[in-house]
Amino acid sequence: MIALIRSRLTNWTVFIPILAVVLLVLTWGRDLSGVAVALVAAFLAGAVLAAVHHAEVVAHKVGEPYGSLVLAVAVTVIEVALIVTLMISGGEKTQSLARDTVFAAVMITCNGILGLSLLIGALRRRVAVFNSEGTGGALATVATLATLSLVVPSFTTSRPGPEFSPDQLAFAAVASLALYGLFVMVQTGRHRDYFLPVTSAGRLLDGDGDAHADPPSTRTALASLGLLLVSLVAVVGLAKTVSPAIEAGVAAANLPQAFVGVVIALLVLLPETLAAARAARRDRVQISLNLALGSAMASIGLTIPAIALASIWLEGPLLLGLGGTQLALLALTAVTGVLTVVPGRATVLQGGVHLVLLAAFVFLAASP
After folding, report:
1. Over the stretch 298-336, which tens digit does the pLDDT of each residue have?
2. pLDDT, tens digit, for every residue of 217-256?
3. Rounded distance, CA 74 to CA 185, Å?
4. What is the pTM assigned to this prediction?
5. How large is the angle between the packed helices 243-252 and 218-241, nearest 10 degrees?
6. What are phi and psi of 204, to 5 degrees?
7. Any idea where the domains of the chain sit in the sequence?
C-alpha cells in the first residue's frame, strides 16, 4: 500500500496538473515577467500532456465512442467559459472573439487534427481506413452547424453587419443544441458501431480496440476523469494567463487582433491533437476522426448557445458572420472533407491536402 501511494505521488501525470492549477491561482490577473511567462508555458505544456494521458485512461475504460466524446466535450465546455470570460472583460475588441475562436477551432479540427490523423494512419498502413457512415454523418453535422451559425449571419438583413437579430440568435442556439444532442444520441446509441475503429479488412473493433491491455479499474478511471478536468482547467486558465503576452507579441508583429483567437485555439486544442495522433499511431484512425469532428461539433453546438445566453449581459453587437476569405476556406474545407470521407479510405495525399488547408488558414489569418 505504501509503495502504491508513493508511486501515485511521484507520478508526474498526477502532480503536474495540481501544480499547474496552483500556478494558475498565483499568477491569475497579474502582470508576468519574461521568466514567469516561460514558467507558465512549461506548466501549460505539462498540463496538456497530462490531459492526453488521463483522457486515454478514461477512453480505455468506457470504450469508444464514449472515450473521444469525453475529451471533446470537456475541452469545449472550458473553452466556452474562456470565451465568455474574455468577452465580458475585453470590451469592443472582443465583439468578434466568439466567431474567430469557433472558426479557428473548426479549421484546426477539420483540417489540422483530421489531416494529421490521416497522414499518420496512411504512413503506418499505406491506407488509413475508417467508417464512412459515421464519419460522413459527423461531417454533415459540422457543416450544417457551421453554416447556420457562422455563414448565415453574413447574409441576413435584420441587423446591419454580420450579426443575428435576437430571434435569429435564439433559433441558431436552439438548432445547434438540438443537432448536437441528436448526434450524441446516434453516436452512443443505435448506430454506435458506425463510430468504432475498423481494420483494413473492414472488421469492427469493439471497445478501444486494444486487446493487449486490461481496462483500468473504476477507481482509477474516476481518478483520471477528475485529473483530466483539473488538467483542462489548467490548460485553459494558463492559456488565458499568457494571453496578454500573446496579444503583445501579436501587436509587436503587426498581426491582426483576430490572430490572438487562432493562437488561443491552437493551445486549447493541443490535448485533442496529441490524443488523436496517438490513436492514429495505434492504427485507430476512427478514434482520431471521432475526436476531430466531435470537437468541431461541440465547439459550435455548445459555444453558440452559451454565447447567445451570455449576450443578454454583454454590451455591444455580437459579430458571428464570416468574411469573404473565411467563407471560401470553410466551403473548400467542406467539399474536401466530403471527398475525403466518402470512400472510407485515405492516403497521405488526403492528409496532406487538409494540412495545407490548415496552413492556408493560419497564413491568411496572419496576413488577410
Report:
1. 888 888 888 888 777 777 778 888 999 999 999 999 999
2. 888 888 888 888 888 888 878 877 877 777 777 778 888 8
3. 17
4. 0.81
5. 40
6. -75, 145
7. 11-366
**In the chain, where does DSSP find H-type helix?**
2-9, 12-27, 34-62, 66-90, 97-107, 114-125, 132-146, 166-188, 218-241, 243-252, 259-268, 270-281, 285-310, 324-341, 348-366
User: 332: exposed, middle or buried (C-beta count within 10 Å: 0-12, 13-18, 19+)?
Assistant: middle
Tell me 273's DSSP state.
H
Reference 40, options 55, 54, 21; nearest CA is: 21
Q: Which residue has the cell 441528436?
A: 182
Each residue's pLDDT tens digit, 139-194: 999 999 999 999 999 999 888 878 898 899 999 999 998 998 898 888 887 777 88
Q: Which residues contact 358 (CB under 8 A, 6 or more apart)?
A: 107, 108, 111, 112, 115
Rounded distance, CA 362 to CA 269, Å?
Answer: 15
User: Would you give the DSSP letter of residue 198?
Assistant: B
The closest alpha carbon to 345, from 276, 274, 265, 286, belongs to 286
Q: How far apart are CA 325 and CA 299, in angstroms?
A: 21
For residue 91, what pLDDT band results from cuts at 50, 70 and 90? low
Instruction: Using alpha carbons, select from 266, 293, 295 the residue that is nearest to residue 77.
Output: 295
Q: What CATH homologous superfamily does 11-366 map to?
A: NCX, central ion-binding region (1.20.1420.30)
CA dist 197 and 238 (Å) reads 34
